[in-house]
Amino acid sequence: MIRRSPTRIEMRLDDLQEYEEIRKAHEAKKDPEKKSSSSMNPPTWGGKVPQSEIQERIGYIPQQHPPPTHNRTT
Fold this sequence. Notes:
Number of helices: 2
Oligomer: single chain
Radius of gyration: 31 Å
Structural class: mainly alpha
Strand content: under 5%
Helix content: 40-55%
Number of strands: 0
Largest sheet: none
C-alpha cells in the first residue's frame, strides 16, 4: 500500500471565530436541557436512604396494624 505524505493543516482566524460561534450556539442549546434534567438526577450518594423516603418515592403507604391481642386462658 502506498503511503501519503502528511497533509499540512493550517488554522486561520476565520476558523477560530466560526468554531467559537458554533460552540456558543451548542452550549446555549444544551443549557435548558441541563437545567431541566438536573432535577431528574438523584442526589449524590451519602449513605443509606431511610426506608420511609424509599416508600414515599415509590408511592407505598404502609397500613397501621393494630397490636395483636392474646386471649389465652390458663
